Amino acid sequence: MNSSTDASAVALASFGGAKLSYVDGVWVNESVRGRDLKYYVFDWDDNVLCMPTRIHMERLDEHGNWVPHVCTTSTFSVIRKDTAHYRFPMGRREMAFVEFQDERTPLGGGCFIADLDRALDDIAEGRRLPPPSFNVFRKTLVEGRLFAIVTARGHRAETLRAGVERFIERVLTPVEREIMLINLRGYSYCFDGVQTFPSQTAVLRRYLSLNRYHAITSPAFDARLVYEAPEVRTQEDRKRFAIHDFIEHLVDILDRTGMDALRLPISIGFSDDDPHNVEAVREYIERVLVRRFPTVKFCVYDTSDGKGAHKMMISGQLELSLE
Q1: Which pLDDT value is given to residue 317?
Q2: What is the pLDDT of residues 58-69, one digit of tens each?
Q3: Closest Cα partner for 243 from 271, 275, 209?
Q4: Residues 152/235, Cβ–Cβ less than 8 Å
Q5: Positions of E strands within the chain
Q6: What number is the average pLDDT over the span 196-215?
Q7: Nearest Cα to 40, choosing from 218, 266, 274?
Q8: How far, in Å, CA of 269 to CA of 36, rounded?
Q9: pTM recorded for the entire structure
Q10: Three-class SS of residue 61?
Q11: Quick one: the chain helix, strand, coil %, rounded to 5?
């Protein structure tokens, strides 16, 4: 037996009592038909991965002078509301976040995949523990569940999607990738009536295309807000808009499969390491989302302490596990 056959055998054994069918020369998991409808919204930096990307700020020193101050995303989440001591260079946010764009500049940028690889190297080589939602994201992928990436970065959606592909390539084991494919084929077979599966690559691409990738300071996101929500300006409001968009997207997908999404028990978990975002989303859920989507159970996870045990604020009756 070769390694691919071994991985397939181990993957099949992991399904236990699940109903597996052999369709078009591959295995599909028909038991996904009875799975709970559980989805996730992930912030990226310091939540899924601790990226080495830097923010270029200015700090008021002890002499009353504004001096350059380079910081990490985790530090920025703490100081970003302290406008008395920290500011964007020349008052321009884009100058602070040049490394978070797809375009290259003298200060950086255009290095999302390279930064992702460095972050994964740090974990693989034991220099850093996985961030709080690293393994949750990994499990989400293996189970083939839909998700959204909602980050304050300024990349194109295609860049974030490429990052997810790299995560799958580098983090998931051969067995986990095989389990993911069996689950993904199961969803297509059970809910979309798919009977043929041309390649593993096609199955994965279809899955990735169903998810949402929102970089809320990107030019594309800015352009969308101009037409759909010109009143949305702050980072917190942008994240709210992106989350609402993902929920509407989920409802549309479920409705297309013949389900009445607004009548089904659905659970959605949101995780973020920035306490300001966490509070803003929690308030938005209680004020808007639970009324718009009364059957959806929302969970918000504060991962700002960087530890595996998360503070959890819940709206609804169903708790999601982040373990």
Answers
A1: 44
A2: 999 999 999 999
A3: 271
A4: yes
A5: 20-23, 26-29, 37-42, 55-60, 66-71, 86-87, 147-151, 212-215, 266-272, 296-302, 311-315
A6: 96
A7: 266
A8: 13
A9: 0.90
A10: coil
A11: 45, 20, 35
